[in-house]
Amino acid sequence: MAGLQEYKCPCCGGAVAFDSGLQKLKCPFCDTEFELDDLKTFDEEVKNEGTDNFTWNTTPGSEWTEAEASQIQSFVCKSCGGEIVGDMNMAATACPYCGNPVVVSGQFSGMLKPDYVIPFKLDKAAATERLKKHMSGKKLLPPAFKDAHHIEEVKGVYVPFWLFDADVDAHIRYKASERHTWQDDRYKYEETKYFCVVREGKIAFDKVPVDGSSKIDDTLMESLEPFNFKEAKDFNTAYLAGYVADKYDVDAGTSIGRANERIRRATERAFRRTVKGYDSVDVETSTIRLDNAEAKYALYPVWLLNTTWNGSKYVFAMNGQTGKFVGNLPMDKGLFWKYFFRTAGIFTVAAFAVQMILFYVM
């Protein structure tokens, strides 16, 4: 029969039916009861949620002038294919991404010129000292790994980043619940009430960074955040003196997906903090629409050490502006078992396992 309105249960998605005894709508699958007006309101809310709009302006920025390009030379790594640039005084060097030698490729050409640069604030001495501190006290670290040869390979690299600005208009619907339990002499009872919670509003994002290099793990670079953009300068080739800069190989258009993901997560977290007083809160739908969305190109300072130990790659990185440090370390299996048997009489196996976990995460 045409024209009949069918409502879905907001809790389980089943079709609800009118219960004459209760004089309410009831879901036959999860037994949740509803007033008709409440379901009408919920149904209208769902219909009006709209769709996402992640439209960005990625119009190319300025090009390198002939004078600027003449002051830069390009290096290409034969091993990983990475391309870096430096000033004309820089000789052939080791690749900051894989540690292998690179050779001069020729005169720099192509690609966009960065809009901004955050100059290095911390020098190599600070980076090597932080690396020594990171390795200090790690009893299972291979002794040869601590030698000065590895430490001296730390290199200052300007990493390419796309910076995304946007005004966000968000509509987020949460499924919230409250649980109540009680008991009598015979039974224990639990009642769960479900709520539809809606949040709408605007939030602005300024300089959301996404690294433009495929040779560096996105998660690693995000772990070095935040960078303080207030100290950024308009780009000038003079800032490259003594450092290398990576040429981006992931353009702004390709980086949009990562930016959208970060903006959605941050928006949902910000709005979620306003939903209080429930035992559980889950996002059911979120609609994100962008205005004034554009991307800029910048170089951010990072001290990098890429090295290999027994066939495995280890990466250390330090924020060249704030000093924040991240990195993973190898473990000497011989020392592991030696230390294990020596401590077995003092610690339980469980306690020793906790020490091993701390070794990797600290």
Task: Describe the model.
- It is built from eight helices and 14 strands.
- It is α+β, with helices and mostly antiparallel strands.
- The mean pLDDT is 80.
- The protein has helices at residues 36-47, 66-69, 124-135, 148-151, 218-223, 252-272, 333-343, 349-361, and strands spanning 17-19, 24-26, 33-34, 72-77, 83-87, 102-107, 116-117, 155-183, 188-211, 233-234, 244-246, 280-309, 312-319, 325-327.
- It folds into three domains: 1-48; 66-163 and 203-261 and 301-330, no CATH class; 331-362, no CATH class.
- The strands form two sheets. Strands 4, 5, 6, 7, 8, 9, 10, 11, 12, 13 and 14 form an eleven-stranded mixed β-sheet that branches.
Short description:
By secondary structure, the protein is an alpha+beta fold. The protein is 23% helix and 35% strand.
Helix content: 10-25%
CA radius of gyration is: 28 Å
Number of helices: 8
Please indicate the percent range of residues in DSSP E strands (runs of 2 or more): 25-35%
Anisotropy-based shape = elongated
- Terminal residue distance: 66 Å
Order of helices and strands: EEEHHEEEEHHEEHEEHEEEHH
Sheet with most strands: 11 strands, mixed
Structural class: alpha+beta
Mean pLDDT: 80
- Total strand segments: 14
Poorly predicted residue ranges: none
Count of distinct structural domains = 3
